[in-house]
Automatic annotation (TrEMBL):
Protein name: Secondary thiamine-phosphate synthase enzyme
Top-rank taxon, per record: Bacteria
Family to which this protein belongs: Belongs to the UPF0047 family.
InterPro entries in UniProt: UPF0047_YjbQ-like (IPR001602), YjbQ-like_sf (IPR035917)
Amino acid sequence: MHSELIEIRTGSEETVVDLTSRIERFLTDAGAGDGLLHVFVPHATAGIALIETGAGSDSDLLAQLREVVPADDRWRHRHGSAGHGRDHVLPAFVPPSTTIPVLDGRPALGTWQSVCLVDTNVDNPIRSVRLSLLTG
C-alpha cells in the first residue's frame, strides 16, 4: 500500500478544488499498476465529489448546497463564522471519501469526471487529503 497526505489551500471562500492532477502525480510517483485508490478528507466540514469541472458544475454544486444547507442561524452547532453549523452537515451530502479503480497506473474515471475536494468552511483555509493506493 502507498499512502500520502497532501495539503490543499482552499482559501477563505466556499470552493471546489479539482484534485485529479495531484492524484495522477501520486499514482505516477507510486509506480501504480492496477488497484484501488481511496481518497479521504480527514475533516468534519469537507467532502469529496466526482463531478465535471470547468463547465459550471462546480459552481452549480456550491449553489445547490447553499440552497439545501444554507449558512444561516438555524444550526445548533454555532462556533466559528455565521452559519458554520451547516459545514458540519455537509459530509452527509458530500461524503468525506471515495474509492476509484486504477487501471494501468491511471484513475479509471469517466470522460468528464474529476475528483474534487468540496469545502464550504471559510474558517479553515488549508485542508488535508489522504491518498491511499491499494494493490493486489
